[in-house]
Amino acid sequence: MEEYAATIRAPLRCNTEVHAVRDVGNGRFLDVETSRGTVRATNVVVATGSFHTPKIPQFSENLPPDIYQIHARDYRNPAQLPDGNVVVVGSGASGCQIAEELHRDNRKVFLAVGRFNRTPRRYRGRDFYWWFDKLGYWHTPLASMPADARSLRFVVTAVDGGHDVDPHQYAIDGIVLAGHLKSAERHKLTFHDDLDATLDAADAWYEKFRKQMDECAASIDPPLPKEPTAPDASIVRGVRGIVELDLREQNVRSVIWATGYALDFSWIKLSVFADNGDPKHERGVTQRAGLYFLGLRRTYSIGSALVAGAELDAAYIANHIAATRKPK
After folding, report:
1. What is the mean pLDDT of the chain?
2. Are 285 and 124 in contact (CB under 8 A)?
3. Is beta strand 29-34 parallel, antiparallel or unpaired with respect to 18-24?
4. E strand intervals along 258-326
């Protein structure tokens, strides 16, 4: 970051919180109100990403006060939690990493698994991110991608140098799997009976992705090393996930909500939002001249919300600003 700042030689304002963005000058300027004063600008690029406010199901309020609840954003380590077993709701990267850590801490873990696309951390000597770039997933426009690839939910980890995230292996290791959480009422949790379908879909995607990688590898010179045969996970196939859980009976004392985030742009005092709070834009360009959004999910491609994947969106916005800049 220091090298980047030195390269662009921008007048950085570190340790500065933005409180509001307002329209001034009959639409000519935008005032950015910060903790260190107001900055008047012709163009403002909002690059705060897509992960603002924790999303927690409303039925979490039905759990009794003796159950400790925390969102993945605020989780740091097992010592935060009271003694006892744990339910982790959500199988994204955070949910899976937390479930693994708690399992290593000798907690009995119950993991509610949502839809995801199973991917290898490394394959034939190359990292997952290398493969996604090589196969065009990061930067291909969503409109040009197959329907099943437009809403990919891949899960990777860099813990211990990186390894595959596989719920099949979780079940073998002793983590108890369930489908989507359906409801909570006092000390009873109810889950949808959809775990098998979720795991089957994840496995189908994995096989499709593996074939794509193998086909690509065949065209690379020098050839990539062969991949060892993956271990058979069939011993857990066909095993239904639990559909009910009595927290008292299983000594569950904590529930961790790894249920994602919602956008919060309440500090932008401009009429550029849809009824659900999402910005209305075309590849980051809003109808309010001079206001742009960068880093939102699927702005242009599935890589739009990633630092490494937003480069094309950033270039598009920068070119738009340059093209509309008025000469002094």
Report:
1. 91
2. no
3. antiparallel
4. 261-262, 291-293
Distance CA 277, CA 185 (A): 30
On whether the CB atoms of residues 219 and 277 are closer than 8 A, the answer is no
Same domain, 307 and 168: no
pLDDT tens per residue across span 137-181: 888 888 888 887 777 888 889 888 899 999 988 999 999 999 999
Structure confidence at residue 28 (pLDDT): 87
Q: Which amino acid is at 114?
A: G
- Of 261, 278, 293, the position where a domain reaches its end is 261
Same domain membership, residue 210 and residue 171: yes
**What tokens does 84 get?**
């006892």
14-35 pLDDT per residue, tens:
999 999 999 997 778 999 999 9
What b/e readout covers 168-192, taking b as 16+ CB neighbours within 10 angstroms?
A: bebbeeebbbbbbbbebeebebbbb
Task: Give the chain's domain count.
Answer: 2
H-assigned helices in the chain: 2-8, 93-104, 128-134, 167-173, 195-218, 311-324
Give CA–CA dist 57/327, Å, rounded: 51
Number of H helices, E strands in the chain: 6, 17
Amino acid at 222: P
| C-alpha to C-alpha distance for 199 and 319, rounded to whole angstroms | 43
Residue 229 or 263, more confident: 263
Residues 268 and 237 both lie in one domain = no
What are the beta bridge partners of residue 34? Answer: 18, 37
Four-CA torsion 231, 100, 61, 297, nearest 10 degrees: -70
118 Cβ partners below 8 Å, 6+ apart? 155, 165, 166, 167, 202, 203, 205, 206
Query: Could you tell me the two tokens for 209?
Result: 């992705």
Helix, strand, coil fractions of the chain, as percent rounded to 5 = 30, 25, 50
* Domain coverage including residue 232: 53-261
Alpha-carbon dihedral angle through residues 180, 265, 19, 315, given to the nearest 10 degrees? 110
